[in-house]
Amino acid sequence: MGHSTWRSQALASIDVSSNRRIIPFALLGALILGAVLAPLDRSIRLELGQGSEVESLRRLDSQFGQGLSVAILGGYRSVAANLVWLAKNENWEQRDFGGTLAKIALATSIDPRPEMFWLNGSRIIANDMPAWEVGDPNTDILFQSPEGRAIVQDFGKRALAFLEGSRPYHARNSDILLEEGMIYWRKLEDLEAASQRILEATRGENPPYHAFRLYGEILTRMGRKEEALRFLESHYLTLPDNSYDAMKVVVADRIRALREELESKAN
Description:
Blueprint: H1 3-12, H2 23-50, H3 53-64, H4 66-73, H5 77-93, H6 97-110, H7 115-134, H8 141-144, H9 146-164, H10 167-170, H11 174-187, H12 191-202, H13 209-221, H14 225-236, H15 248-266
Helix pairs in contact: 1-5, 2-3, 2-6, 3-4, 3-6, 3-9, 5-6, 6-7, 7-9, 7-11, 9-11, 11-12, 12-13, 13-14, 14-15
């Protein structure tokens, strides 16, 4: 997802009155929060520098999490987390690994409730950072060489480790479970693990329609076509007729194709 989208989503989640008289107070608050949080940002950078990102990200929440929010920020943690997230964009633009990871970790530690932090943070790690590692002119090697695939898988594992931190706050969040499934699928090429996460997503809170279609597709790719057919047939019965997102016609076409393929093999 692009930088402008992250910025617009982050700004949208900050509750600031349209009354212009509060702008000076908001700016003053931002400066104060910046001064308070700067030492924590440096501490997180140090933590990230002492071990692998996977190990460090797993430890950061306990060190800089809810205690920080309650003791220092109180009811302003949502504003503070959004300010940190916006500040992260400068590091992202500069392709600063340490600064980007530090601010992603700090934002989710201050306020772990917004799923946007977790989803976009994982996408930065899994999708952007491999390209930073090799440079834009060399991104083809990420898909065409064993060394490139190793880089993609490494950052995929780091993204999954980051998403583990969302568990206490978003245990049944279908979007996060689906994101994990797609990382297993696209980055680690682990279809079994991917299928398990995507199935969990279909059973989570407010599952999106495309999670069901993806589960049927991954079952098909794994050779479990009879199971895919049964799953999609069951899903089809729940779909509304007049919903673009449901894509009922697409599901019907997939069911028809699977039936024809299985019948052809049976004959």
